[in-house]
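hey so i finally got around to running both of the ones u sent me last week. sorry it took forever, my laptop kept dying halfway thru and i had to restart like 3 times lol. anyway pasting them below in the order u listed, first the sequence line then the structure token line for each. didnt double check formatting much so if smth looks off just lmk and ill redo it

first one:
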Amino acid sequence: MQEPVFSYVPGESFLHKLDPRTKLAAVMLLGILAFRAESFLEIGTLFTFFIALASFSRLPLKVFFRAVRPMALFIIFIFLAQFFFTEGQELASFWVLRPTLEGLYNGIRISARFILLLLFAALMTASTDPSAITCGIERMLRPLPLRWLGVNSYELATMMNLSIAFLPLLFDRVERTKAAQASRGMYFGKNPLRSVPALTIPLIRGVVRDAEELSLAMESRGYQGTCRTSIHELLMRKRDRLSLLVMGLFAIIMLVL
């Protein structure tokens, strides 16, 4: 069975040994830099930095292809929308579609941003145990006055971790639903719009059922949202401080470009 997207891949690389708080802070910073990237030089620098991080992680390339593939249609749609409907210097004319040079630039730039976000997120989730991510988020949120909002860091970290955990399960359920409908004789290529209800309705029912089963399992095990313990002892080591320093220097370089 194919592994779901954004799943953890055990390893002993440099990235696997980093504190989850270091990787969370790095991904947030890289996400901000990706959204601020305007020129092709900045985007190319971010892709080069990702390649360097991927080499340190020793993760197989299929992990990153698997993260981008489910969003490929969405990325293509964004590119085409920018390419054909952005005003500027026209490259050609196809009925109501008028591709422009500015649309080509914007489409490549925005698509590259989304791809970078997916790649950096896949790099973090593949090199970090989900329970360590939960512990890292809780430690980072603990100093915030979340009690004024009626929640605490433990509950918020659990919700974030469940969201991360449900994402690969959602893609896996989509594939299983498609296979089940295909076995019943449905052909998705003939009329894609007609097949949407056949996918969405069983998918929503399955997701709701999974959420109910998870909530019952947590209640039966006496889940409490306060003062939870963790098997992970988080400790910022020399490699973590060095990594944060490198990230800070890289961010300064990106802001200067």
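and the second one:
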Amino acid sequence: MSGAGAPDFFYREAQRLGYVARSAFKLLQIQNKYKLIKPGSSVLDLGCAPGAWLQVACQSLGPLKNGGMVVGIDLKKVKVPSLHCDTRVQTVCADVMKLPRIQVRALSSQKKGFSVILSDMCPLVSGIRDKDSALSVELGLRALDLAVGQAALTHSDGSFQMEDNFDSSIACSDDNGVLQQGGHLLIKLLESEDMQEFSQICKPLFRKVSWLRPKATRSSSREIYLICQGLESKAKI
């Protein structure tokens, strides 16, 4: 019952409660502990397929009258789930690795950026540990780059290199990230020796940086989440 595709408690609970995937419980645990999404938040969900995090994010906004919005981006075309979502949720079919920050910011309310960015992006796992870890870091760096912009490069010692499918010219075309000051960033990575280097890049940029492996994570999985809270002002960065 602990295999990658075997039904388990969280799978059954997802079906019972109307979530489109068991991954909803990962974000629910993170949300319960860190309260990243508040009423009125503007949320960007990177790698949003199949839509379970869209559901949890929308629920976390509270009633429709509280306002807020959730924008999901994925390579796949994702239909907004009918349960737990409302008109505040929209999805975009696009390659995050090739989207200029200015286009991502344009998806936010009044083009002011997002207060929360969630990245559940994960590479197609090959089974080759080092290769999979490198691809995971690449996706994580892209999420960080979108969030904080040029500040991410400023605090990197050059240890991490983007692969060929990341167009550096689009990143440099707009120095400002799309995460609002004081905002939060959540990034999924695969456990590796690069984890601590990644967190060291983030620590000067955020008020608090933590690691969490949600209980809903399968025992066979190497997934772990980096929670970055409170983006510091540019003056402090």
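quick thing i noticed on the 2nd:
The radius of gyration is 17 Å.
anyway thats it, ttyl
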